[in-house]
Amino acid sequence: MDCPTCEAMVDAYVDGELSAFESADFERALELCPGCRARLERVREVSSLLRALPVEPTPDLLRARVEGEIRAIARRPVDRLRWMAMAASLVVAVSIGWLGGSFVGLGGRENDELVAGYLRVAMSDHGVEVASSDRHTVKPWFAGRIDYAPPVYDLTAQGFPLLGGRVDLVDGRRVAVLVYRRNQHRVALTLWPASSNGDSQPSVGERDGFAVARWRHAGFEMRAIADIAPAEMRSFAAGIDKAVDADH
Amino acid sequence: MVGMSEAPRPDAKTAERFRAVVLPHLDAAYGFARWLTRDPMTAQDVAQEAMLRALRYFHAFRGEEARPWLLRIVRNTWTDLRAKARLENGSLEEVENKPVDGPDPEQSAVAGDRRRQVAAALAVLPADMREILVLREIEDLSYKQIASVLGLPIGTVMSRLARAREKLAAELSGRLGRRGNGLPDL
């Protein structure tokens, strides 16, 4: 075997792509060829360095979204419109970086804005504009940024520590978003003054794999969204209501 | 691949089979997308879009190996997304031209300067070399599987892999110096 042939086989040898016969041939040729032995060492070294690289785990949010899509299809075998809307919203979101997830749908615009807002909260290190677990820091931060004072409570005791807040747009209006944490997940609570009277019980649904709760309490429209289980979302909504009532 | 509108709509049974056969490879899809895009946010978009496409095309899956099949879709998705972004507004230029880095080994429990250097060296390789190294060394695909993901003849896989390793070795010897890293003098 001449050296060029030998050299061409180094990678295949390391990768276990040679037959037993070819390998034996190569090993004999290698004895006579210091250049190819050096190359063999380099290839082994590069290979082991790359294999030692840590693997970055799949983000929870990505997994939740993918599983949400699969669940949605498994549940609704014949809803073609939903599938197309989902695909359309995904294409839009992918192509413009999640910032404009609205599509012509059946009143889905607010939901889309909530999902898009949640993604900004959950997928970015800058999702919170005021970072504090102290409601006396978070609440005054909203003054001058929006035209109402949102009720702000820390729910650490209920398992939802307050992380901070931000301002977002829902239906063209600047609204307060409070960000909480549930284990490794973030919960975004968007709230604004209700235009109609009376409380309503939280209704928890699912949207793109996220749990979404909507209710009205103490004069505020509440929307909460997170990649957590619906039962956890119900306990979050109940915790908010309780904290608001205790303060009144 | 057929266009989206021509594919039959997946039903509940398909979704369940997909969950069992393809979903276990989500980590591989994200990891590959992470190295292709060199950006965690874009990688999530690409991986998610690829999973959706995979679900859409799953009816055409004929029991070949799921992981290479999915990785091929990831790569096609990334190619399409780049082409589309270039046509529309060049919004991905920022991603493609920014200073690059791979997944940050700092985040792992046993972070090391050497690993960070290896990741950085891999990240700056040309795309065709980077992807083939990731498929071989990180995804541990055979030459035949790599050929199917990249749509290349086996001979090209062999020669490109050899060039990519030489290039990475050269890059590493520059970054790591010649002492203490086990890399022989180059």
Structure explained in plain terms:
The complex is a heterodimer of chains A (248) and B (186). By secondary structure, chain A is of the alpha+beta class. Chain A folds into two domains: 3-51, no CATH class; 60-247, Phosphorylase Kinase, domain 1, CATH 3.30.200. Chain A has helices at residues 3-14, 20-31, 34-51, 60-75, 80-95, 109-123, 135-141, 230-247, and strands spanning 130-131, 162-170, 173-182, 185-193, 200-207, 210-217, 220-226. In chain A, strands 1-2-3-4-7-6-5 form a seven-stranded antiparallel beta sheet, with helices on both faces. Chain B has helices spanning 12-21, 26-37, 40-56, 66-88, 93-97, 113-123, 127-138, 143-150, 154-176. Helices cover 65% and strands 0% of the residues of chain B. Chain B contains nine helices and no strands. In chain B, helix 3 (40-56) crosses helix 4 (66-88), helix 4 packs parallel to helix 8 (143-150) and helix 8 crosses helix 9 (154-176). Chain B has two domains: 10-98, RNA polymerase sigma factor, region 2, helix turn helix motif (Rna Polymerase Sigma Factor, Chain: A), CATH 1.10.1740; 102-178, Arc Repressor Mutant, subunit A (Orthogonal Bundle), CATH 1.10.10.10. The interface between A and B is large, with 50 and 65 residues.
Which key features would you list for this structure?
heterodimer; A: 248 residues; alpha+beta; 8 helices; B: Rna Polymerase Sigma Factor, Chain: A; Arc Repressor Mutant, subunit A
Shape, per Cα inertia axes of chain A: elongated
The CATH class of the largest domain in chain B, by name, is Mainly Alpha
Strand content of chain B: under 5%
Alpha-beta classification of chain B: mainly alpha
Q: How many structural domains in the coordinates of chain A?
A: 2
Characterize the main sheet of chain A: 7 strands, antiparallel
Helix count from the secondary structure assignment of chain B: 9
Low-confidence runs of at least 5 consecutive residues of chain B? 1-5, 90-95, 105-110
Mean pLDDT of chain B: 82
Strand tally of chain B is 0
End-to-end CA span of chain B: 44 Å
The radius of gyration of chain A is 28 Å
Total DSSP E strands of chain A: 7
Beta content of chain A comes to 15-25%
Radius of gyration of chain B: 18 Å
Summarize model confidence as the mean pLDDT of chain A.
81
Order of strands in the sheet with the most strands of chain A? Answer: 1-2-3-4-7-6-5
Coarse morphology of chain B? globular
Helical content class of chain A: 40-55%
CATH class of the largest domain in chain A: Alpha Beta
